[in-house]
# Entry
Amino acid sequence: MRQIILDTETTGLEHSQGHRIIEFAGLEMVDRKLTGRHLHLYMHPERDIDPDAERVHGISLDFLADKPKFHAVADELAEFLRDAELIIHNAPFDVGFLNAEFNRLGMAPVDKLCAVVTDTLRMARDTFPGKRNSLDALCDRFEIDRSNRTYHGALIDCELLAEVYLWMTRGQESLMMDAGPGEGEGGAFGLNLAFERKPLTVLAARADELAAHQEYLDVLDKSVKGSCLWRSIEAGAESGA
# Structure
């Protein structure tokens, strides 16, 4: 399934008070890799921008003077999102604004356009309860460089969120990668599989490594709200299944 890392900037905090989207950014991801396809739009909001909001994102009404209004880009935006999983930090905010914009035009809401919406803020709160889970805080926690983030811009926030999402879900990759023929020499992953396998040397894990492994599985259990896949694999191995 296509995934779209998504963020918006707006004229204010509440779409119910008539605030509008002024910037949209989405990065496409397939198989946990950014494809290079993206959509980045500025829109004239047809209203003033709250000073507090402008101090956060740095986008002025003068800058938006020659930008299209939402209705002019709505179809392009909707098509970009269609049938994808949306990855959003604090999803209710962005989805609420998108739905308000689509509703003005009589268009389908986000839940009808997209397959599913994943809220990384909710994921972070489940994984790191009681800690700060803003995008800035998560970047610091995962040691992601955000030195270029002077303002809260939608495009740079998407780039940071993509890295955060990959860190938060790094235990969910497929355990068995597709080893079949792919594009180019050596298949999709650049591997040359036409060789004679040599016996592998198996090294037993040290006690501290086993303890660190169990701590990591505890984190994964919280992220999936149950037992992670590794637990099932280890249980099967111990039972001889």
Remarks:
- The chain has nine helices and five strands.
